Amino acid sequence: MAEQDRPTPARSDADDPALARLDRDLEAVRVRKAAETASRRPDADPAQVRNIGKAWSLAIEMVAAVGVCVFIGWWIDRWFGTAPWGLVGFILLGIATAMWSAIRTGMAIQRAQLADSERGVKKEGD
What we know:
Helix content is about 85%, strand content about 0%. The protein contains four helices and no strands.
């Protein structure tokens, strides 16, 4: 029991060349995996990832706006018996809503890029 309580002496890499070789091999594998991961992800730039997210958000928003308006137009036509005018009117409303959303998002992106470029000019001038 007394032998189990004693701490084991710390081993250095000089004590065992096999452990030193294993450490070098593990470090080489870590470096190679990090390089593969970095080369596999061309979208690692946060600004690019953010822009892709905004584009997908805009696309989904546009499709949803038109889809909801088509459903509402179809429902109104069935309820009031006004086919096809409710559907036509709400399709036009959905398209207008989608275009307004696209314009609004484009203007916001343009303002953000302008602000970023102005900050870059101020930093260079300082």
